[in-house]
C-alpha cells in the first residue's frame, strides 16, 4: 500500500517537473508572447507489482491456515455432522484450496457465517475466501467489493409446500405466507416472482436456514423458499420429509461459487484455477484413487501432464507447488467425486444427470478453461 | 527555614503533574486507537471501491414487508428503515406499559403474607431472571406460539381467534353517528373527572365520606351507553376477521412474532422490575407502615397511600435501567422473525452492501431512543423527589 502511494507521488512529481519544463524562459523583450499553460490533473496508473505471489496468498502461508467462510446449516453444501466436522460440497472446495496452498486439506479454519454476515466478513478480511452457496449477481459483483470465481453449482430458486395443501404451482399461492432467509437474493426473487404473477404474499423473514425450516415445519408458513438444492437438503431435516414437495417452477437463476474480496487478482487466480483443476480432473478421469499412480506413470495426454505438474510451470506461476493439483485431487477428488459424496444418492440426492451440473461434454454447464 | 516544610521533589513525583500527564496520555492513546480504527476502515473501503454516502437509501429496496405498517417491494430503503423503526417503537411502547404492571404486581406479591402467592412470585423472578432472554424467546416462539393450532383449527374465544398465524381481533369501524358519539363520550369523561376532583376535595376539607369514584363512574358509563342506545344505528360496528383462502381477511391482527417478542420482553424485564419494586418497598421505613396502620388504614391503602409513593423514589432510578434494557433487548427480535429496526437494518445492509452506514444510522437511532427514555424518566424522578432533599 505504502509502496503504491510513494510510486504515485513520484509519478505525480515527475509529471510536475515535465510541466514546469514547458514554461517559457524568462522574457527579455517588452512585447511578450503569452502562452497559457493549462494544468491538468492526470491520474497515472503505475503497475505496482508483477510478483508471482499475491499478498493474500503470502498472508495465508504466513498464518499457516486458510480461513474459509462456510455455511453450517445446509445439509449437502455446508453442514456440521454428528462428529462436529464441517462437511459438504462447498466445504470440500475449501479443503481443496487448503490442499493447493499447503498440500494438506486439514489446514483450513472454517468460519460459519449467516447469509447476512457473509459479505461483511469478506469486506473486512475476516475470511480469505467465501464458499457458502453464494449467488453471483451483478450488484454483488460491482457494489459489494466481491469477486466471483467459476460457478461450481448451477441452482435455481424453488418453493417447497405441504402435499396436503394441494398447491401445484406458484399461481395457486395467492395470499400465502412464505418462510424465507434474511439477506438473500431469494428474498428479492420471492418478491419479484409474486409481483410478476400479481399475487400478494406475506414473508416470514428469519436469519438462519434452520429457523426458516423449523417455522415452516411447525406450520407457520405455507411455503418455504430457497435454492432448490438447499430445499432438498432442508427437506431431509423435516419431521416427515415425504409430506412435502418442491414445486416444479424455478423462480430464478442461482449460479453459486467461491467469492473473494476485490483487489487481489493473483489470489483470485489461485481460487479460479483450483476449481478448474477439479473440473478438468473429472474430464480426464483423474480421481482421488488413481491420481498418485497417474502422476507416477508418466501419462501421455499433454493436458494431464500439464495439470499434474509433469510439464510446464503452471503451479509455480500461481505461486503454488508445481504439482499442487495432485494434492488437491488426492484430498477431495474430482468434481464428480465431490458431487456424489454430498449431493448424490448417498447425500441429499439431487440428480446430476441431465441437469445443468453435468459436465459440458454430457450436456451440462460444468466447464473449465483449458489448462495450457 | 521558610522552605523547610517543602521538599523539592522532581517534577515526575509531583501529584499535579502526574494527574495532568496521566490524562494527557489517556487522551493520546484513545486518539491513536480511534485514528487506527478509522484508517483501517478507510483502507478496507478504499481497497474495495466502496464509499460512505447515504444516497443508497433512496434506491428501490426490492423486498416487501408485511409486519406493522408494511411496504411494497418497489419502495426505497429508507421507507423500510422507517417501517422497522415503527415496529420497534410499537413493541417497546406496549412492552414498557405491560412490563411495569407485571413487575409491580410481582414485586408486591413477593412481600405478601400469602405463602402461595409469595413463592409463586419468587419462583417466577428467579427462573426468568436467571435464564437468557434469547433462549426464552426461542422457547416462547417455537415451543408455545407456533405450537398453537393451524389456521383451519383455530381457537375462537368469542370474537377473538387464536392460531399459529397470530391473534385476530375484530376491528372497530366507525359509522354515521360515530363523531357525535365520540364527542359525547369525551364530554362524559370530562364530567366524570370534574365530579371526581370536587368530591375528593370535599372529602379532604370536611372529612365526610363522599365516595368520589362511585359518583364519578356514573356519567362515564351512563352517557356513552345511553348515546349508543338512542342513536338510530350503532355508531361503531365491529369487523370480524374471516378465513379467506390461506389467510384471515379483515379485523386486527397481532402476528405470532410480535406476540412472542412482546411476551418475552414483558416477562423478562418484569422479573427485574419486580425485584426493584420489592427493594423499593423494603426501603420504606417500617415505622411508616405501622403509623399508617395505627391510623386505621386498610392494608391496601397503606400500600397505595403511604408505602408506594415513598418507594417510588427508590424505584425509579433502577427502573430507568430496566426500561432501557427492554428497549435495547427488543433487537433480539431478529431471532424470531419479527421485523424490528435491527432486523430490517440487517436486511438493508445485506441487500445494499452498505454495512458501515446502516450500522452507524442504527446506533444513532438506538442512542436517540435510549436517551429519550432516560430524559423522560429522569424528569419523572425529579418530580417525585422529596422537595428540599
Quick summary:
With 372 residues, chain A is of the alpha/beta class.
Q: Any idea what the radius of gyration of chain B is?
A: 29 Å
- Which percent range describes the beta-strand content of chain A? 15-25%
Structural class estimated from helices and strands of chain B: alpha+beta
The helical percent of chain B reads: 55-70%
Amino-to-carboxy terminus distance of chain A = 32 Å
Largest interface pair? A-B, 42 and 39 residues
Largest sheet of chain A: 6 strands, mixed
Low-confidence stretches of chain B: none
Output the radius of gyration of chain A: 26 Å
Output the number of helix runs of chain B.
11
Distance between the termini of chain B: 49 Å
As a percent range, the share of strand residues of chain B is 5-15%
| Proportion of residues in helical segments of chain A | 25-40%
Order of helices and strands of chain A: HHEEEEHEHEHEEEEHEHEHEEHHHHHH
Number of distinct helices of chain A = 14
Helix-strand pattern of chain B, N to C?
Answer: HHHHEEEEHHEEEEHHHHH
DSSP E strands of chain B, number: 8
Largest sheet of chain B: 4 strands, antiparallel
Low-confidence blocks of residues of chain A? 19-25, 46-51
Assign an overall shape of chain B: globular
* Total E-strand runs of chain A: 14
Summarize the structure in words.
The complex is a heterodimer of chains A (372) and B (389). Chain A is built from 14 helices and 14 strands. In chain A, helix 3 crosses helix 9. Chain A is of the alpha/beta class and 372 residues long. With 389 residues, chain B is α+β, with helices and mostly antiparallel strands. The longest helix of chain B is centred in the N-terminal third of the chain and has 33 residues, at 15-47. In chain B, strand 2 and strand 3 form a beta hairpin. In chain B, helix 5 runs antiparallel to helix 6 and helix 10 (341-352) packs antiparallel against helix 11 (355-384). Chain A binds chain B through residues 1, 115-116, 119-120, 123-125, 139-140, 143-145, 173-177, 182-183, 187-188, 191-192, 195, 201-207, 211, 214-215, 218-220, 222, 261-263, and chain B through 43-45, 47-50, 62-66, 73, 142, 146-147, 150, 164-165, 244-247, 256-257, 334-337, 339, 343, 346-347, 349-353, 355.
Amino acid at each position: 500500500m505504502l509502496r503504491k502511494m510513494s510510486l504515485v507521488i513520484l509519478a505525480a512529481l515527475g509529471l510536475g517537473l515535465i510541466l514546469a519544463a514547458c514554461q517559457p524562459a524568462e522574457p527579455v523583450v517588452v512585447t511578450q508572447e503569452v502562452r497559457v499553460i493549462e494544468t491538468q490533473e492526470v491520474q497515472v496508473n503505475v503497475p505496482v507489482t508483477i510478483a508471482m505471489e499475491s499478498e493474500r496468498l503470502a498472508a495465508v502461508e504466513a498464518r499457516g491456515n486458510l480461513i474459509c467462510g462456510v455455511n453450517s446449516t445446509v445439509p449437502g453444501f455446508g453442514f456440521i455432522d454428528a462428529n462436529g466436522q464441517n462437511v459438504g460440497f462447498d466445504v470440500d472446495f475449501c479443503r481443496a484450496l487448503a490442499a493447493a496452498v499447503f498440500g494438506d486439506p486439514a489446514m483450513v479454519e472454517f468460519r460459519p457465517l449467516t447469509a447476512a454476515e457473509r459479505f461483511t466478513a469478506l469486506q473486512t478480511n475476516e475470511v480469505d475466501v467465501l464458499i457458502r452457496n453464494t449467488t453471483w449477481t451483478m450488484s454483488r459483483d460491482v457494489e459489494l467489493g466481491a469477486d466471483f470465481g467459476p460457478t461450481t453449482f448451477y441452482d435455481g430458486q424453488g418453493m417447497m409446500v405441504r402435499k396436503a395443501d394441494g398447491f401445484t404451482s406458484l399461481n395457486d399461492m395467492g395470499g400465502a405466507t412464505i418462510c424465507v432467509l434474511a439477506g438473500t437474493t431469494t428474498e428479492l426473487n420471492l418478491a419479484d416472482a409474486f409481483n410478476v404473477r400479481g399475487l400478494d404474499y406475506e414473508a416470514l423473514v428469519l436469519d438462519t436456514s434452520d429457523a426458516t425450516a423449523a417455522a415452516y415445519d411447525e406450520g407457520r408458513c405455507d411455503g418455504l423458499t430457497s435454492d432448490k438444492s438447499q430445499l432438498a437438503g432442508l427437506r431431509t431435516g423435516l419431521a416427515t420429509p415425504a409430506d412435502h414437495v418442491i414445486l416444479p417452477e424455478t423462480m430464478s437463476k442461482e449460479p453459486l461459487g467461491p467469492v473473494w474480496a476485490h483487489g487481489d487478482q493473483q489470489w483470485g487466480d489461485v481460487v479460479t484455477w483450483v476449481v478448474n483443476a477439479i473440473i478438468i480432473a473429472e474430464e480426464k478421469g483423474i480421481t482421488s484413487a488413481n491420481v498418485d499412480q497417474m502422476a507416477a506413470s508418466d501419462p501421455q495426454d499433454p493436458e494431464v501432464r500439464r495439470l499434474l505438474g509433469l510439464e510446464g510451470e503452471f503451479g509455480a506461476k500461481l505461486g503454488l507447488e508445481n504439482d499442487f493439483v495432485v494434492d488437491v485431487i488426492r484430498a477431495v477428488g474430482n468434481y464428480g467425486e465431490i458431487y456424489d459424496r454430498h449431493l448424490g444418492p448417498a447425500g441429499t440426492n439431487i440428480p446430476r444427470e441431465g441437469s445443468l451440473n453435468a459436465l459440458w461434454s454430457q450436456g451440462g454447464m460444468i466447464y473449465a478453461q483449458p489448462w495450457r | 527555614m521558610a522552605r523547610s516544610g517543602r521538599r523539592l521533589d522532581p517534577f515526575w513525583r509531583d501529584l499535579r503533574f502526574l494527574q495532568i500527564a496521566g490524562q494527557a496520555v489517556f487522551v493520546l492513546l484513545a486518539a491513536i486507537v480511534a485514528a487506527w480504527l478509522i484508517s483501517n476502515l478507510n483502507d478496507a473501503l478504499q481497497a474495495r471501491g466502496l464509499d460512505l454516502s447515504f444516497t443508497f437509501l433512496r434506491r428501490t429496496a426490492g423486498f416487501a414487508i408485511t409486519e406493522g405498517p408494511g411496504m411494497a417491494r418497489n419502495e426505497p430503503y429508507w421507507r423500510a428503515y422507517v417501517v422497522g423503526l415503527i415496529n420497534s417503537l410499537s413493541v417497546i411502547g406496549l412492552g414498557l406499559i405491560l412490563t411495569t404492571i407485571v413487575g409491580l404486581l410481582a414485586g408486591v406479591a413477593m412481600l405478601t403474607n400469602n405463602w402461595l402467592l409469595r413463592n409463586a412470585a419468587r419462583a417466577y423472578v428467579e427462573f426468568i431472571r436467571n435464564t437468557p432472554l434469547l433462549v426464552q424467546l426461542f422457547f416462547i416462539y417455537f415451543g408455545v406460539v407456533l405450537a398453537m393450532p393451524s389456521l383451519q383449527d383455530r381457537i375462537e374465544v368469542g370474537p377473538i381467534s387464536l392460531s399459529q398465524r397470530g391473534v385476530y381481533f375484530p376491528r372497530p369501524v366507525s359509522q354515521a353517528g360515530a363523531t357525535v358519539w365520540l364527542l359525547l363520550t369525551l364530554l362524559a369523561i370530562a364530567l366524570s373527572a370534574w365530579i371526581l376532583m370536587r368530591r375528593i376535595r370535599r372529602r379532604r376539607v370536611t372529612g365526610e365520606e363522599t365516595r368520589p369514584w362511585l359518583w364519578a363512574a356514573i356519567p362515564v358509563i351512563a352517557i356513552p351507553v345511553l348515546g349508543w342506545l338512542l342513536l338510530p344505528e350503532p355508531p361503531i360496528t365491529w369487523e370480524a376477521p374471516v378465513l379467506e383462502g390461506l389467510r384471515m381477511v379483515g379485523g386486527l391482527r397481532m402476528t405470532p412474532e410480535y406476540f412472542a417478542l412482546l411476551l418475552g420482553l414483558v416477562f423478562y424485564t418484569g422479573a427485574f422490575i419486580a425485584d426493584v419494586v420489592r427493594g423499593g418497598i423494603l426501603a420504606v421505613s417500617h415505622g411508616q407502615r405501622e403509623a399508617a396502620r395505627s391510623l386505621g388504614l386498610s392494608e391496601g391503602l397503606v400500600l397505595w397511600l403511604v408505602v408506594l409513593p415513598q418507594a417510588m423514589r427508590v424505584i425509579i432510578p433502577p427502573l430507568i435501567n430496566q426500561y432501557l434494557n427492554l428497549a435495547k433487548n427488543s433487537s433480539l427480535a431478529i431471532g424470531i422473525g419479527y421485523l424490528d429496526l435491527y432486523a430490517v437494518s440487517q436486511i438493508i445492509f445485506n441487500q445494499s452492501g452498505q454495512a458501515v452506514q446502516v450500522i452507524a444510522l442504527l446506533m444513532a437511532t438506538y442512542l436517540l431512543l435510549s436517551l429519550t427514555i432516560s430524559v423522560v424518566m429522569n424528569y419523572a424522578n425529579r418530580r417525585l423527589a422529596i422537595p428540599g432533599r
